[in-house]
Design goal:
Thioredoxin-like_sf; five-stranded mixed beta sheet; Thioredoxin_domain; Glutaredoxin; antioxidant activity; 7 strands; oxidoreductase activity; two-stranded antiparallel sheet; alpha/beta
Amino acid sequence: MRLFAPESAPALDLVDIHGLPIMISSRGRLTLLSFFRDAACPFCNFRIYELTNNHAELAARGLDIVAVFSASQADVLRFAGHRPRPFPLAADPTSSAHEIYGIERSLWRKLKAIATRVPTLLRGMGLVGLAGLDTGNLMPADFLIDERGRIVEAYYGSDAGDRIPMERIERFLPCARVRHAA
């Protein structure tokens, strides 16, 4: 079942791909909790690339990012984690965390993304190769969580390549402080 704002974000006790604990229930931080499909998903890997490239600016504005894949630790390491990432990647091989957050499945929406998001699909395939053709039917979802642990926005993808727009993430964050020369 889908979650909605302003519900409390369900607590998750996850371990990142290096064995370190990730506590989603901790308060006091702004968080983007992103649920990804299979670790070889071309759309997912392209989004990880985008988040990696924007991380410095987002982190400077107070955002923590946590990426959760419905995949084994070995697969997350092989695909999304083959390069160092500035935020934690977690494996959820049984999809239990995905279920807690109401992540949906749809073959139709997966096929829709393949047919309508060809440029992103091709860029993502460049990151994962042919393994990207053998992915499941989970849909992506993103959750913006405030300092009190409340969901500010729950964004369930309309297809396998649909993610919360970066502009909405940026609007969620405090304005950047401009330094003035003394």
